[in-house]
Task: inverse folding
């Protein structure tokens, strides 16, 4: 999601091939044996298969909303917050959301509690500003909110009752945005050899 957000805001069009991860195309696995999305093959043949790498590539070409330049704080501060999201927080998110995928005895309530510590930190950051690094959204907001959305949706009734008003409003604001609606639009699943073998031009100009 965050790769698509960055591609869309940057205006970098690509040929989109929507896939089902339970039926991974051989071409995708040939490009990126790790077998997860996103995977972006550049015109020079290079392959980017991490969402942040794709976001940085797109935004370094064109960053019209200054996502790489936080309104307050530094670029390094922004990267550090994203790293905490992608590391310790995602560790707890995965074990809260998918407890049965891990070792027997994995306690989702424990991991929910540990993950909530990060949510509390974000809520405090939002106490004086509308976004994580000021009143203008930065890459940190768009890199992190998809993971907060996952955490919230694991038990939305519980999440909505937590004393995290600033964070809840911030999340709802991003979910209600036109940019989010654009990247969440479903495209037909790519079938090798069909009339759209080259993929769908995305984001469209319409």
Result:
């Amino acid at each position: 999601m965050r790769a698509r957000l960055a591609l869309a805001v940057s205006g970098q069009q690509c040929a989109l091939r929507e896939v089902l991860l339970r039926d991974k195309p051989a071409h995708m696995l040939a490009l990126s044996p790790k077998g997860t999305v996103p995977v972006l093959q550049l015109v020079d043949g290079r392959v980017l298969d991490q969402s942040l790498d794709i976001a940085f590539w797109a935004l370094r070409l064109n960053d019209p909303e200054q996502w790489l330049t936080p309104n307050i704080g530094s670029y390094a501060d922004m990267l550090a917050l994203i790293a905490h999201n992608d590391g310790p927080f995602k560790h707890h998110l995965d074990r809260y959301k998918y407890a049965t995928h891990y070792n027997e005895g994995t306690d989702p309530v424990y991991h929910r509690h540990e993950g909530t510590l990060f949510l509390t930190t974000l809520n405090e950051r939002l106490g004086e500003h509308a976004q994580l690094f000021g009143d203008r959204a930065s890459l940190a907001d768009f890199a992190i909110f998809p993971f907060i959305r996952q955490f919230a949706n694991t038990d939305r009734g519980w999440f909505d009752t937590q004393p995290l008003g600033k964070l809840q409003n911030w999340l709802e604001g991003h979910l209600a945005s036109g940019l989010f609606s654009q990247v969440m639009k479903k495209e037909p699943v790519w079938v090798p050899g069909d009339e759209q073998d080259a993929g769908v031009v995305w984001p469209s100009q319409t």
User: Anything to note?
Assistant: The radius of gyration is 18 Å. The mean pLDDT is 94. The domain at 75-175 is CATH 1.20.1050.10 (Glutathione S-transferase Yfyf (Class Pi); Chain A, domain 2). The first helix runs from residue 2 to 10.
